[in-house]
Every structure is written in C-alpha cells, then in structure tokens.
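Exercise 7b. Backbone tokens:
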C-alpha cells in the first residue's frame, strides 16, 4: 500500500476546509419592520422650553427584526410641512442607538427649533419620527408626532467669537478687517472695554463680510440683522452681551480711580487712552505711617453710569510684589471693603510719583502696572 506524502495530505485537508466553509456560508439576514408606535411625547404635545431645563424623554415601540440582531434607532426631526427626506436634525437613541428611547436636553430642542426657522421667543411646530436600521436596511416609521414648541429668548446657537465694527468705534471704519475683538467670558457671553464716538456700530461673529451681524434694539435685546446702533455720548464704555438670553449691558465709564486703603480715598485718576487701557503718567504716592510701619495697600475704583465698581487682587490679604509672578497684578471685581483684596506698592514708589496703567484688553487677562518715576 502506497504511503501518502505529508504534502499531499495537507493539500487534501485544505481542500476539505474550503468545501466545509462554502457549505457553512449564509446570506446576512437584514429583514426589518419599521417602528409601529411613537409613545412620547404624545402627538400635539406643547413644550415651553427653558434654558437649562430638564431633558425631554422620547420613546417608541421596538422594530421587528426577523432573525434578531442589533437594531439601531435615530429620532428624526423636520419642519411641520417636511417629509423627512431632508430632516432638520437627527439624534441617536440612548445606549449608542440601541435603546427605544432618547433623552434630549431642552437646549438641544431649542437648537432644533431654531434650525427649523422658529425664532427667539417664537412658537412653532416640529414633527418627529423614528428611523430604524439593521445593517444596510433602513426603515422610517410611517407615522409622525408633532410638538408645538415655544422658544426662550436668546440664540440657540450663539457665536463663538464676536467683533465690534462701525464708524462709531475706535477703528472708525466699517471695514471688518479692522474690527475690534470681544473677550469671551463664558460660552455665548462676551465683554469689551472700548470707546465709542459719533457714528454707528454693530456686531459680527466674524472679522469678514461673511459673518452674521447683530444689533441692539430699543430695549437692549440682541437681534440678528444688519441694523446699526447710534452712539449717544462719546467716551469709554463697557459692552457686555449674553447671546444665551439675548441680553446686553452697556455702561459708560467716566474714570478710573487709584484707591489707597490707608487714606480710604482715591489718590489719583486714570484717563482712558485707547485700546482698552487707562493711564496716568504721574500720580504722587506716599505710604501712610502707622505705629507698626508704613502702609502701601491699594486697588482701583471704576466710575460708571451704573455706579462704582472695585477691582483688586484675588488674594484677600496680599503679600509684597517683590518676587511674585506676573499674575500677582491681575485684576478682578472685588468688594469695596477698605482693606480687602488690595495690592501692595513696591517700596521704591514711596514718596515718589507712580506711573500707573490698567489694561482691560480682550486678548489677555485684565491686569495693571505701577512703577516709580521721577
């Protein structure tokens, strides 16, 4: 009897394996029946959205898959007259799409309503349905529920950047390449210390003509559009805009005072010099003599059309400035307490003049310098 070589035997085994694999190969079963019932929110539900309000649960019955397997779901939104062929928004169900519910924040619903053309403080109708999918098979529910939504004030999608432009600005031009940048203090919230002059101004989310334009109406509410704002009185201002609730706060700034704690009064005034800066080249400074030594503590007082505001150190009880990092001189709003949150002058300034500059520049931390001069 002939002996079968090792090579021949391995070849036979390979052929048998291939044949076996071919016999076990089966077509992928992606049969799927669309979701039948939309449970919540019920049809014709009304929702009055609130910023940061509780999430809204959406739920539906499970789709039917012939041979089991994973079915994924998306909630699909459209305008009241849409047919879901070009939906306004799609959002994956909970559990990475596997659950028959989606927990949707009110802020997201506000964004969806905005995309559907429902304006701030406006009321309009959205409709929603479910798109179920298994592999390449996608089934859209044959029915849809409607939601009547009332939006809160504000912009569902606030700008990420903001610029000031116009003939009434420090740039004195409507050329957006010369626009002045705002400081973003929180998502959708902006602040700028600048001066305004005779003329008009408006805001843009880009330093280019393609940007969206905004203005303030007679009540100070932020509106989107090409209208401009007329400057009433020339001078330095602080402009605060909150796009999340469409509010503004614009105050004029009369002066910036250097407050010395031991005297409990302002010992000099700084003048606005442009580019978000207040300066005084020569303020006479003399430390106050107590029995325990000479006191050198100070902070700043901003005189505004809304009243006095104090700016000082993050430290309630501060140390001397020698050897401290640049952040020692950072400014933030503080109380009017005589001794709290003050800085200390360098000893070289005692009985001399101090050159004092305060910087509220939008592209950096608010800060100041104080140096001795002859």
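Sequence design result:
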């Amino acid at each position: 009897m002939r002996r079968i070589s090792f090579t021949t035997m391995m070849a036979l085994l390979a052929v048998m394996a291939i044949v076996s694999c071919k016999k076990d190969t089966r077509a992928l079963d992606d049969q799927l029946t669309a979701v039948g019932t939309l449970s919540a929110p019920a049809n014709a539900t009304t929702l009055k959205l609130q910023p940061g309000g509780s999430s809204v649960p959406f739920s539906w019955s499970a789709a039917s898959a012939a041979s089991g397997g994973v079915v994924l779901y998306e909630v699909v939104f459209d305008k009241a007259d849409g047919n879901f062929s070009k939906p306004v928004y799609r959002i994956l169900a909970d559990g990475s799409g596997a659950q028959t519910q989606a927990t949707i924040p009110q802020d997201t619903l506000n964004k969806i309503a905005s995309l559907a053309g429902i304006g701030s403080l406006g009321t309009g109708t959205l409709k929603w349905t479910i798109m179920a999918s298994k592999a390449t098979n996608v089934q859209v529910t044959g029915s849809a529920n409607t939601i009547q939504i009332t939006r809160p004030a504000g912009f569902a999608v606030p700008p990420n950047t903001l610029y000031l432009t116009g003939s009434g600005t420090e740039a004195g031009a409507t050329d957006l390449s010369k626009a002045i940048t705002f400081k973003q203090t929180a998502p959708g919230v902006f602040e700028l210390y600048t001066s305004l002059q005779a003329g008009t101004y408006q805001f843009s989310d880009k330093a280019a003509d393609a940007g969206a334009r905004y203005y303030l109406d007679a009540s100070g509410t932020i509106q989107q559009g090409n209208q401009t704002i007329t400057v009433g009185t020339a001078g330095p201002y602080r402009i605060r805009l909150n796009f999340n609730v469409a509010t503004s706060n614009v105050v004029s700034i009369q002066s910036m005072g250097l407050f010395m704690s031991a005297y409990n009064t302002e010992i000099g005034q700084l003048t606005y010099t442009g580019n978000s800066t207040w300066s005084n080249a020569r303020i006479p400074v003399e430390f106050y003599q107590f029995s325990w030594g000479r006191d050198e503590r100070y902070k700043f007082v901003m005189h505004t059309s809304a009243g006095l505001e104090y700016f000082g150190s993050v430290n309630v009880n501060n140390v001397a400035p020698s050897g401290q990092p640049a952040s020692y001189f950072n400014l933030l709003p503080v109380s009017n307490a005589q001794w709290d949150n003050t800085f200390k002058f360098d000893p070289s300034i005692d009985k001399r003049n101090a050159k004092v500059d305060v910087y509220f520049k939008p592209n950096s931390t608010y800060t100041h310098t104080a140096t001795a001069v002859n």
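Instructor comment: Residues 6-24 form the longest helix (19 residues). The helical segments are 6-24, 106-115.
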